[in-house]
Amino acid sequence: MRFDDDDDDDDKPDEAQRGKQDDPLFMGVAKALYKARTVLIFGEIDTKIAERTTAHLLALAHEGHGDIKVIINSQGGHVESGDTIRDMIRFVGPRVKILASGWVASMGAMIFLAAAKENRYCLPNTRIMLHQPLGGVGGRASDIAIEAKEIIKMRERINKQIADATGQPIDRVAKDTDRNFWMGPEEAKAYGCVSHIVTSAKEF
Question: What is the pTM of this model?
Answer without folding.
Answer: 0.84
